[in-house]
Amino acid sequence: MSVTIVFGSDSGCTKKIASRIASQIDARTVNITKAQSSDFEDCSLLILGCPTYGDGDLQADWEDHLNALEEAELKDKKVALFGTGDQEIYPDSFVDAIGILYDIVVGKGAKVIGFTKTEGYSFTHSAALRDGQFVGLALDEDNQSSETDDRIAAWLPQLS
Predict the structure, then answer these.
(1) Which segments constitute the Flavodoxin-like domain (predicted)?
(2) Is 7 left (phi over 0), alpha (psi -120 to 50) or beta?
């Protein structure tokens, strides 16, 4: 299975998570600033990673290069999502960015896999919730970094 992880990252946190995931599943990583439509299309599994900024915004590089995703042919493509956020400072918009990306890829006909439960998190609202679950892997490196390895390990088997 060929896997491509497209991520955006300002501080390097989401890039490090993308690299950690990639090393465990033999995936290639592509920064959204360099991504082209083919990066989204030419793989068996597409993983998108994005931090949530402020009160629920996409990371700036995702905002600036979203057209590459929007122009890609994703009908029936398997897509998984992961996002980073801060559930203590931004409890009303925790990992909202992956909810935004979810809506885009589903609107393009993709099949999203890798939903995760909300147990163990402390937030009040998230645009990344569907039917009581996160649309992907939710990570809080500011407050729960000790949980990251276990959360990744529990998430990855769902993607095969």
Answers:
(1) 3-160
(2) beta
| Cα–Cα dist 25/133, whole Å | 24
Looking at residues 15-34, what average pLDDT do you find? 97
One-letter amino acid for residue 18 of the chain: A
For 67-109, write each residue's pLDDT tens digit: 999 999 999 999 999 999 999 999 999 999 999 999 999 999 9
Q: Is 143 exposed, middle or buried (0-12, 13-18, 19+ CB in 10 A)?
A: middle
The torsion region of residue 95 among left (phi > 0), alpha (psi -120 to 50) and beta comes to left
Boundaries of domain holding 25: 3-159
Terminal-residue alpha carbon distance, the chain: 8
CATH of the domain at 52: 3.40.50.360
Give the C-alpha separation, 110 to 89, whole Å: 32
Q: Residue-wise over 97-119: b if at least 16 C-beta within 10 A, else e?
A: bbbbbbebbeebebebbbbbeee
Q: What is the DSSP string of 52-119?
A: EETTTEEPHHHHHHHHHHHHS--TT-EEEEEEE--TTT-TTSTTHHHHHHHHHHHHTT-EEE--B--T
Query: How many structural domains are present in the chain?
Result: 1
